[in-house]
Amino acid sequence: MVRCASAARAAVAAAILAAALFGIVVAADSGFAKQPFIVLASTTSTENSGLFAHILPRFEKQTGISVRVVAVGTGQAVRIAQRGDADVLLVHHRPSEERFVAEGFGTRRYDVMYNDFVIVGPKPAQSRGDNVVDALLRIAGDRRLFISRGDDSGTHKKEMALWAAAGFDPRIASGTWYRETGSGMGATLNVAAALGASTLSDRATWLSFANKRNLEIQVSGDPILHNQYGVIPVNPARHPHVREGLAGDFVGWLLSGAGQAAIASFRIHGQQAFFPNAGFAQ
Amino acid sequence: MSQIFSLDDVRTRLKGVDSGSVGILPLEFRDVSLSVGANQLLDRLNFRIDPATFTVILGPNGCGKTLTLKLAHGLIVPSSGEIAWNGPYGKAAKRYQAMVFQRPVMLRRSVRANVEYALKLRRIPRRERHEIVGEALALAGLDRFAKRPARWLSIGEQQRVAIARAWVTRPQVLFLDEPTANLDPSATRAIEELLLRVHQAGTKVVMTTHDMAQARRMSDDVLFLCRGCSVEHAPSDEFFAAPRSVDARAFIEGRLVW
Amino acid sequence: MDEFTQAFASAMRLVYTLDPSLLEVVGLSLGVSLAAVAIATIVGLPLGAAIALFRFPGSTGLVVLINALMGLPPVVVGLAVYLLLSRSGPLGVFGLLYTSAAMIIAQTVLVTPIIAALSRQTIEELWAEYADQLRSFGADRRSAIPTLLWDARSQLGTSVLAGFGRASAEVGAVIIVGGNIDHLTRVMTTAIALETSRGDLGLALGLGFLLVLLSVVVNATVFLVNEGTAPRHSAV
Fold first, then answer.
1. DSSP code, position B131
2. Per the CB < 8 Å rule, is A25 touching C101?
3. Mind listing the pLDDT tens digit for each residue in A155-199?
């Protein structure tokens, strides 16, 4: 038989002890967060390439505001911002960004910077060129191994748009020469490198990727491969708790001369990876 | 070295350990039966255990000795019948008893800490515990093992620890369930000598065994069980010289094994 | 292959130069996992003992459930905790997401079933061995709990270590609720995941090796503490 009274007492004691321990941790945690901060939901292409490591310290030095970057796929970043778990959204898929604002989650969308996508493939190149639609059709025709992100990210949506422009849906061949990893850019590149396959990547991630093995850029320069990044503050009308002022400071800095210069000065192996274009027509 | 205490001696010397102001013996089993499912394990046991003597419960394996002991000590309840201790205590009489099992259950701590355990449960203060435990260790010849982890001892030594641990609360009755069944002859002898000292110190001993020679050596009276029934209860000399029941005779002559 | 060994070597260099960012990551990993294991032990040990000793309606079902929860996938736990702590979720007002507190919560959820299930098994077996003798001394199930917990300390310690192993090795939960934020919620496993996705496989492997080493150090420490108090061999 359970002695209810003393069992309950013991349970309460254990709960209090556990809660106390946890409380200590939270207190210690927020003790360190005396510095003002914002949460920025962004993509792996900006974080993993090292861009943020380059520009954010400058912002912090100038304003004392710390930027906490949560780097995930575009789709996930948008959803994080929709739920109010981020103060600012910075991704690279314009339709998603515009819908984000239209649905009231964001206040306004601004151009920040651009670079381009490239198609990488194994040496020796079957062909090189600057026409991506032709290249994709050749890949499909030869049934050459192609790795897709398949994860609803900005890069993935771009890839689907390119296939649509080529008039071919590769998903009918999914699992054969066309393989969808459902993963981030880095993981997808690892797969492509290991299998000697082609894939679509943003230039910044590709430049900073350390496991290139036998892969090289084979298609680039096609205007359709333009990769535009947009920044949007999360709407305080929708999520009253967002750090509106600090977020505004960050977006303002990013679009200002100082921020844009910081972006332009970022190099990967000597090459400029992001080209600032704030202030141009949206 | 063992000392001979009289019962009054023990009661006055011991501070804090309550041996009960009323004797709980004699113990009576009245038509006690035990069945589990369809199995009738014990069938109408009737006997009386008197104070002072060294009682041995004898019988072949499977006759119900262990069950009888557990029933007497209150570890299991009978299906029918009455188990009556003397005095006002009723079920609480368990407090003035102790039991040692066939395989010693050593706690994962030192010998001293094992012996001390029951005293701790009864909230005897530390200073008194130390002295009481010392006496028990001396009686059992375990002084040099006091600090050693109990599980490091040989099984014979562990059984002595178990007996010391049981005796430390000065029980009125000490039950032992085949305490030497797993031991070699020299360890058996050490246990038997220890039990005689415990008995001399004033504790009633009720011990089960299937070893007839041991029963002859140790017992003042013998309760013979067979196939779940209490067959015969007689003073030791009488029982071994002229057993009254057929089964007892067969057992003594070695014809009834299991 | 040469780049690989170079990168591995650079990971080792981080160790003997006591690289501050490495120390930060290691410190956070230990802090989060140890805190989670501590809370899980405080909750799980008594829970396991209680289920072992007391019968109540549904206790068998509870045993099966807790055993099954040992296999909770970390990524599922991460997702569930994320939805709970998200600003749009029920506990969002506390603002715990993307902090080490969230990571501790997630790992506690992962580890508690392990400690509860293993301690239940241990206490149940020990009680089966001790029950008659302890009851002879006048102890009932409730008053026997401290004795059982102390006597089972060696096996219970192993369960706690198993919990620590689970916590320090998982990445699925902490990456979702922590966000792998640099200098804030980046632990060893998420750092390894990051370096892998950057293609820096040698560095990732080096960090992985360090993580294993860390686990060995923790286990060795516990082993040495145990050896000091308990014998390795017993007569029975």
1. H
2. yes
3. 999 999 999 999 999 999 999 999 999 988 999 999 999 999 999
* Domain A37-114+228-276: CATH architecture, name and number where available: 3-Layer(aba) Sandwich (3.40)
- Using a CB-CB distance cutoff of 8 angstroms, which residues of chain C are in contact with residue B94? 136, 138
Closest Cα partner for B223 from B49, B66, B100? B49
Measured in angstroms, the CA of B75 and the nearest CA of chain C are apart by: 7
Contact B106 C236 (CB under 8 A): yes
Distance from CA of A93 to the nearest CA of C (A): 21
Does the pLDDT value for residue B159 go beyond 80?
yes
Closest-CA distance, C181 to chain A, in angstroms, reads: 6
Give the domain B7-252 fold: Rossmann fold (3.40.50)
Interatomic CA distance for residues C84 and C94, integer angstroms:
11
What would the two tokens of residue B103 be? 């395989």
Q: Is the pLDDT of residue B6 over 50?
A: no
- Axis crossing angle, helix C201-229 with helix C20-53, rounded to the nearest 10: 50
Residue B163 neighbours by CB under 8 Å, 6+ apart: B100, B140, B174, B176, B179, B191, B194, B195, B198
Cα C142–chain centre separation? 27
- Subunits with 3+ Cβ pairs within 8 Å of A are C
Instruction: State which residues form the domain around C89.
Output: 29-190
Choose the weakest-confidence range: B4-8, C27-31, C173-177.
B4-8
At residue A128, φ and ψ (nearest 5 deg) are: -125, 160
**The pair of three-digit structure tokens given for residue A6, joined into one six-digit string:** 């003393």
- Taking each helix axis from N to C end, the angle separating A257-264 and A244-255, rounded to the nearest 10 degrees, works out to 60
Q: Which residues of chain A neighbour C184 with C-beta distances below 8 Å?
A: 68
Which residue has tokens 């299906």?
B79
Taking the model in full, what pTM does it have? 0.85
CATH number for the region A115-225 comes to 3.40.190.10
**What phi and psi, each to the nearest 5 degrees, are found at residue A72?**
-140, -175
**CB-CB under 8 Å, C230 with B98:** no
Listing DSSP states for A231-245 in one string gives: EEEB-TTT-TTS-HH
Confidence of residue A26 (pLDDT cuts 50, 70, 90): low
| Domain ranges (residues) in chain A | 37-114+228-276, 115-225
Question: What is the rounded distance in angstroms from the CA atom of residue C183 to the CA atom of residue A15?
Answer: 31
Is C198 close to A15, i.e. CB distance below 8 A? Answer: no
What mean pLDDT do residues B87-103 have?
Answer: 90
Q: Do C230 and B108 touch (CB under 8 A)?
A: yes
Alpha carbon distance, N-terminus to C-terminus of chain A: 73
What SS3 string covers B1-26? CCCCCCHHHHHHHCCCCCCCCCCCCC
Rounded CA separation A86/A41 (Å): 6
Between chain B and chain C, are at least 3 CB pairs below 8 A? yes
**Prior bond of A124 cis (ω within 30°):** yes
Sign of the CA dihedral with C69 first, then C71, C75, and C76 last: negative
Read off the pLDDT of residues A76-134 as tens digits, 9 standing for 90 and up: 999 999 999 999 999 999 999 999 999 999 999 999 999 999 999 998 887 778 899 99
Q: Which residues of C touch B149 (CB under 8 A)?
A: 230-231, 234
Task: Annotate C88-135 with three-state secondary structure.
Answer: CCCCHHHCCCCCHHHHHHHHHHHHHHHHHHHHHHHHHHHHHHHHHHHH
Contacts by C187-192 with C-beta closer than 8 Å and gap 24+?
C187/C25, C187/C28, C187/C29, C187/C32, C187/C103, C188/C25, C188/C26, C188/C29, C188/C214, C189/C29, C191/C25
Residue that has been written with the tokens 């108090």 in this structure: C229
And the tokens for B16? 């804090």
Return the percentage of chain A with pLDDT > 90, whole number. Answer: 77
Local confidence band at C233 (pLDDT 50, 70, 90 cut-offs): low
CATH number assigned to the domain comprising residue C182 = 1.10.3720.10
